[in-house]
Amino acid sequence: xxxxxxxxxxxxxxxxxxxSPVLPARALRDVVFVDGVRTPFGKAGGKGIHAGxxxxxxxxxxxxxxxxxxxxxxxxxxDEVAVAATTQTGDQGLTIGRSAALLAxxxxxxxxxxxxRMCAGAMTxxxxxxxxxxxxxxxxxxxxxxxHMGSHPMGQGAEPxxxxxxxxxxxxxxxxxxxxxxxxxxxxxxxxxxxADAYAAASQAKLAAAYEAGSIQQDLVPVAGRKPGEGWALxxxxxxxxxxxxVADLDGLRTPFRPHGRVTAGNAAGLTDGxxxxxxxxxxxxxxxxxxxxMRLVSYAFAGVDPEVMGIxxxxxxxxxxxxxxxxxxxxxxFEINEAFAVQVLSFLDHFxxxxxxxxxxxxxxAIAVGHPLAASGVRLMTQLARQFEExxxxxxxxxxxxxxxxxxxxxxxxxxxxxxxxxxxxSATEKEQA
Amino acid sequence: xIPADYADLAAKFAxxxxxxxxxxxxxxxxxxxxxxxxxxxxxxxxRPTTLGxxxxxxxxxxxxxxxxxxxxxxxAAVAVTGKPYYLAAGxxxxxxxxxxxxxxxxxxxxxxxxxxxxxxxLGVPTFAxxxxxxxxxxxxxxxxxxxxxxxxxxxxxxxxxxFLGLIxxxxxxxxxxxxxxPRNALKVMIENALGNNRAVKGPEAxxxxxxxxxxxxxxxxxxxxxxxxxxxxxxxxRAEVAERRSQKAAATEDDWEKAISAARSFVAARTGGAAPxxxxxxxxxxxxxxxxxxxSAELEIDALAELMQTPQFRDTVHAFLELVQKRAKRPxxxxxxxxxxxxxxxxxxxxxxxxxxxxxxxxxxxxxxxVMTDVDQARVDKGVAYVGAEVDKLLAKDRLAPDAANRIxxxxxxxxxxxxFADADFVIEAVFEDLAVxxxxxxxxxxxxxxxxxxxxxxxxLSVGAMAADLLHPERVVGFHFFNPVAAMPLLxxxxxxxxxxxxxxxxxxxxxxxxxxxxxxxxxxxxVVNRILLRLLGEITAAFDAGTPAEVADNALQPMGLPMTxxxxxxxxxxxxxxxxxxxxxxxxxxxxRVSANxxxxxxxxxxxxxxxxxxxxxxxxxxxxxxxxxxxxxxTADELLRRTQDALAEEVGLMLxxxxxxxxxxxxxxxxxxxGWPLHLGGITPYLDRVGASERITGGKFNQHR
Lengths: 435, 708
Hints:
A: two-stranded antiparallel sheet; B: 2-enoyl-CoA Hydratase, Chain A, domain 1; eight-stranded mixed beta sheet; six-stranded mixed beta sheet; 12% strand; ClpP/crotonase-like_dom_sf (chain B); 3HC_DH_C (chain B); multifunctional enzyme (chain B); NAD (chain B); lipid metabolism (chain B)
């Protein structure tokens, strides 16, 4: 369909041929979410299910599962492997996108890179490569993330610039995520610990119901793990969830970030090991290869906020993404918001006038129940939204959003191809794009 | 399997490194619960999992518990896999080698059958996931299971028992031919085992039919479990496996006969009947033809119990564990590695065939510039061209990648002036075997190189000390004795001359190990170790021949030793002039123990290269034209007399070498003969054999290996 499309076919003009100084205008291509998978999430630490498993191996298992699930995707057609990790050392180092591609047995012609935007790593892997697809640089990509927080505790090896403190650029509390969550409680006294606990208990219940319905398991990659003195086991379910948790159970928990505080292990996401990966493609390539288009990317945006209240990042990011999409919050039928902390979700809900138990929000529960392996979580939100789109064709638009350390938020708006009003690409339109 | 039956046996091995059998339940969606057994000794990959009596008793007890659960209907399947890189490396050889009585051996053999039989009789489908090396008893566990998967990255799948002096008698000899057909089974059990203990890799194991499915290593266990789930749940999957199995196992009566007869010929050619195990394996295989697995098991147990008590087995285990696996890797008497100097450029004096082989080896292994010199450009060009052609052959065989081939070719250059050695760190000479020539060569090299440059000689018979005597720096000279063909023969005798410094010796060992050779320290004594032993042996045989012993008697007298070739064939391979030359050196050094044969000289003078020839009827004969050249005495020996006389001669020579301090210990001589002459493990090298047949006692009044 485009001049850029022609350039992608390696048939470059012969060397020395005169090049027109006036480039023709280029059109953008639609980007679709084809498929997403993840490992079961494990509790970080020596007793967790992934304690003896390398982070890169977790990513590799996701990539291989995507290839098995999508046999019509020739591996050599993958143009990029973008893998996020917050701590890029050890088994999360060595340009993990490239090393995971090699370890997964992808052809050596497939490149890869590593990416980092803390908690929004995988989300940024998706948006960055999606930008490349829209621009015409890629046809098909794999984007994902990993965080083995047992092997890589948050902030490990980081050396914050002393100017942060000396010049009071940010409050020292801003580097401690739990403290930023406490600050949200300070800012909006109406967001009480009781509300946070109630939200958290509901998250556990929603996840348990989703497991009961089989909604979660179908996108999990079983992972074998071996422990000293125990042998191999096969993990095919998340480890962090505590189904049956009640508000009363949460009441007495310790508040580790300040005495008599409000943030507890019960209303925050725990430290987690896990990996995710997704296949994205241009709409035309998906049609060409017979790959499903399970979500269409409408818009995305990232935004910065005060690092001291990083939890409100999703608010401006969502406002920006909606504006780019030409949509209103009322147009959004499903929300997948990462639950780093219950209070941070409440701030989003309050801002947009949504009820704490709005049925459009986190139907499968969230990170409070399932865990939050930092850079991996973004693709979990998308994979789950894709499932919910399938289950609920009445929804036209949904969004995935998350807060990010050092004061950021990211939001991606998606359209549901199962919706009756979703414009079906005609065969001729598809052919045109390939031409 | 009743663990208590084996309590006494297990108690005898209190120091066993136990391989545990850990069990975890795995839920297979739609197929029920699979109990996954992991064989794991809790040590890292440098310590393979092995199966001693305690390990097997634990495994058997675990299988019994699983059997109970299976009978209770709570298990759908059982699978066995291993710690990373190993399913299991087989029976614990150090334990098996210590089984003192035939009854203990029988118990050990029965224990394996009892445990593996429990697995195969669990009452639910059983699986083995071959995640890595599966040797001997390790592979036999897998063979006892109902279904097998293998990792595409698995290495070391083998039944090496025949190589070690046993048979795959924990069911392997019965099950493998029925799984993959007799021809392929005997390839694995006989040809691979006796062919330098070759093992197969995962994809080949799948092709052969040893495994029903092959999965990539990255998610091998996950995919194996998913496959097991499909086998349990889907008739079509099982039918597909059954169909493939019947193809792989297909064999007519005739196929069986042919395979067994071909294997017999192979064994006869390889061992000359000197090693009992391969023959026993074929006997048990043939006898088990019409029998059930349980009936065959009794034959296997008898065979194992008998073989475990043979001296050949004990000497093999000793040679394999103590010499090949340990002493070969830690050369006795080598100086501290830290003293070794870096070698960034190698010089080779000479560009003939030996020199060119050395150039290729040094460039390929050390990956540093190698320069050859010779007296004129034509010879130099020929040497460099030889290396290029050999590299191209490796390239064509996919043994080298194109970039690596280019790299090696670029590393090897030639020159007509020794100035080219100016910046070399290690110069080896491979010129004519003449002391004066070698001394002059070293003097010329010394004039060019740095004070630290090591000078090595590949002499096989001259004195290294004499070669160094007139140099400014005699401490830099070391002997570096390779065996022909240089690329293939694993031994390198490193000769310490009287003035050789520790730094130079350490450098020589470091280079030798970088060349991937087995290095043995020897003192500067005529012909060092391997050639001295071989020529003493050849001398006895030639003397008997000269005295009138018929050629076929003389040449076959040593058959009970199972040497890789007969003396006259060895003579032809080494080359009669070379053998004569070295014998003359040995005669000069040691007198009449090394007899220079006038007959041999007559053959050399007449240009005869081999005593044996093949006549028009394909028979092995000494041609009349050759016989007419020779003069014989009138005192022929019988084969038995000659064998005994040779044993005594070898015992005498070994005794003297130890007395002279040519090596540190008898084990070094054994290692040299295994690695340098290809002598079989069942001789233990040579000294355990000489002890066993009484030659050491007869000649030296004691045994070489007191402790064994």
